[in-house]
Design brief:
Elements lengths: L11 E10 L10 E5 L4 E14 L4 E9 L21 H9 L3 H14 L6 E4 L3
Length: 127
């Protein structure tokens, strides 16, 4: 993308957290209760944390994490089996889903910069 980019454009890294509601689900792993501060309602669901790159014209999503809104075992839904192998990709995703949002944003930014994405500013989408 940087080869096609003109020198005059300002480049951004954008962080977005979108809620995914799954009120009817009963056996989805790591589904948790979330609270929407805008509408003042509770719901079952996930938070989709996405990092994207933009030059003001185009947008390119480059990393994303699906978060459980709680890291308390009693508020999480699904199988919590101690026999699961902690070295698998699924186990790493489960641990990542229970991490704090700020820690994940920092890790996502480090991965993006390591891969060579260039940005002048960091922003977030506020709805």
């Amino acid at each position: 993308m940087h080869k096609f980019d003109t020198k005059n454009k300002v480049r951004y890294l954008i962080v977005d957290d979108t809620t995914i509601k799954r009120n009817r689900s009963k056996s989805v792993e790591l589904l948790s209760w979330c609270y929407d501060h805008v509408f003042k309602v509770s719901y079952k669901g996930f938070i989709d944390l996405c990092l994207g790159w933009s030059d003001g014209v185009s947008y390119l999503p480059i990393d994303h994490v699906l978060l459980a809104s709680s890291n308390k075992d009693k508020q999480l839904q699904g199988v919590k089996d101690s026999k699961l192998d902690g070295r698998t990709t699924g186990a790493k995703r489960r641990l990542e889903a229970q991490s704090r949002k700020t820690d994940l944003v920092i890790a996502m930014l480090k991965r993006a910069l390591k891969k060579g994405f260039i940005a002048d500013y960091l922003g977030s989408i506020v709805v």
